Amino acid sequence: xxxxxxxxxxxxxxxxxxxxxxxxxxxxxxxxxxxxxxxxxxxxxxxxxxxxxxxxxxxxxxxxxxxxxxxxxxxxxxxxxxxxxxxxxxxxxxxxxxxxxxxxxxxxxxxxxxxxxxxxxxxxxxxxxxxxxxxxxxxxxxxxxxxxxxxxxxxxxxxxxxxxxxxxxxxxxxxxxxxxxxxxxxxxxxxxxxxxxxxxxxxxxxxxxxxxxxxxxxxxxxxxxxxxxxxxxxxxxxxxxxxxxxxxxxxxxxxxxxxxxxxxxxxxxxxxxxxxxxxxxxxxxxxxxxxxxxxxxxxxxxxxxxxxxxxxxxxxxxxxxxxxxxxxxxxxxxxxxxxxxxxxxxxxxxxxxxxxxxxxxxxxxxxxxxxxxxxxxxxxxxxxxxxxxxxxxxxxx
Length: 397
Description:
Blueprint: H1 5-17, E1 23-34, E2 44-60, E3 65-70, E4 77-80, H2 94-109, E5 125-131, H3 141-156, H4 163-178, H5 185-192, E6 197-202, E7 207-212, E8 221-230, H6 237-252, H7 263-268, H8 275-300, H9 307-319, H10 326-337, E9 342-346, E10 352-359, H11 363-377, E11 383-386, E12 394-395
Helix pairs in contact: 2-3, 2-4, 3-4, 3-5, 4-5, 6-8, 8-9
């Protein structure tokens, strides 16, 4: 189902630039199982890196010219390091240019390692990029691309920074260069994930834990990912509105972040905040607890015990945070009707994908029921497959 993206970018680079790249780097997509949006309130998230990858082929130049090519569009990018600045209009190129901008700025502000040494500086780049992570599919395509390029430039520009610092570059791209309200979770996950492991991220302390994945097949379950074909864009203001509502509740209640309260505390303060803001905050507060419950139950009782938490999370995303859609709701409802123990959207919402935990004997029934529903509604873009953990960002060649 997924291409060899490393081979694709190598061939594309040679065709465009007439020579071999200095190297090829890639990073996976991310399936969020629980905790979306909580990281903006110092919360916790749980997910895994899956097989689809973004890849970059890069070569350093001896000037400050930046040339970017891709097989995703016919548009070609030609600019310079000096010309990079946050744009007013947004498109796909914001992500590679934003990474270069953020890392260039950090490198320019970094003192020399040794007194009297010549400070390291950014150089121009020839760059070819591609991705198999569905764009706008709620599977962290933007974080995947950012991660692949940050790992590449960390090596080529000799920055020598750790993975968490690289994640902060990606976070800066989204929040400053693009202006979308987003947390660190996607960037941390795609940089930290690995085969046979899930990623537990605590945004308050920046702590990342890799957790052994239970053998779902041995328990009789399949991890099913359903791409809805309904896409979103990270620069859409609707997500920013939800995050601002949570910040208003935090300020009103004298908190640094909603992480500092539980559901009973929030309910007791309901009359002090706007009713819609209360709903947004209720999702965050209850979701943080669900992540904790999910992690504990998965490790102690196995996959059969966590299905209800998926469904409760989806209901709160739909009713409290209001980031689900009719199509996503329908997929979740059909999944449950087909025998899934739980189903929820993955990612920031307003389209994207659904993760469902499905007994092996019901997978074919789920496929059939979803195909019938898509035909009835006239929807397109349905993709259904098992998603398994895969290595995080890395050098491929």
